[in-house]
Amino acid sequence: MSSPVIVLVGPMGVGKSTVGRLLAERLGTGYRDTDDDIVAGEGRSIADIFVDEGEDAFRAIEKRAVRTALAEHDGVLALGGGAILDADTRALLAGRRVVYLSMDVEEAVRRTGLGTARPLLAVNPRKQWRALMEARRHLYEEVATAVVPTDGRTPDEVTEAALDAL
Ligand code: S3P
């Protein structure tokens, strides 16, 4: 069975895709992202899945996508920001190299503007961001074998820090 060399977790907008691609290049391996798998598999955007079916349905789809990717992929794998909400998913991450890319709320505002394109942050984004992180920070920390803060760092610097942390 294949197994990802690195799994990236962390909040939306932290740069999992950018850093994941850079890490994959540096390690000479492939890059995969469960959000992309879901969009390809469902033939619609993640925002549309949230609107059409709600968050619970999205989480069920996401859980399957993560399980499949963990079993199939042997490169760098980035998970959607909420994938770690699922206890079975967290259990599947045990024993793997999992890097938590972290950022504080001010960095999140700088990077994303916390704009309306993200369905979980459509109303009062700064407050929702804080609430999301309160609920999730300990879950990211629970699954992580390394925590790499991204505040004030370029993607290249974050990639170096992640490689150092491995
Ligand atoms: C989500 C993060 C998104 C995407 C969906 C829900 C979340 O992925 O899966 O919008 O709950 O944090 P990214 O972290 O890749 O943006």
Q: Could you describe the 3D structure shown?
A:
By secondary structure, this protein is α/β, with parallel strands linked by helices. It has one domain: P-loop containing nucleotide triphosphate hydrolases (Rossmann fold, 3-Layer(aba) Sandwich), CATH 3.40.50. It contains eight helices and five strands. It has a five-stranded parallel β-sheet with strand order 2-3-1-4-5, sandwiched between helices. α2 packs across α4. It is globular. It starts with 5 loop residues before the first strand and ends with a helix. The structure holds shikimate-3-phosphate. Residues 12, 16, 35, 46, 80-82, 118-120 line the site of shikimate-3-phosphate.
- Tell me the β content: 5-15%
Main beta-sheet annotation: 5 strands, parallel
Alpha-beta classification: alpha/beta
What is the total domain count?
Answer: 1
Task: Please report the first level of CATH classification, the CATH class.
Answer: Alpha Beta
Question: What is the CA-CA span between the terminal residues?
Answer: 22 Å
> Could you tell me the number of beta strands?
5
Enzyme class: transferase
Subunit structure: Monomer.
Family: Belongs to the shikimate kinase family.
Subcellular location: Cytoplasm
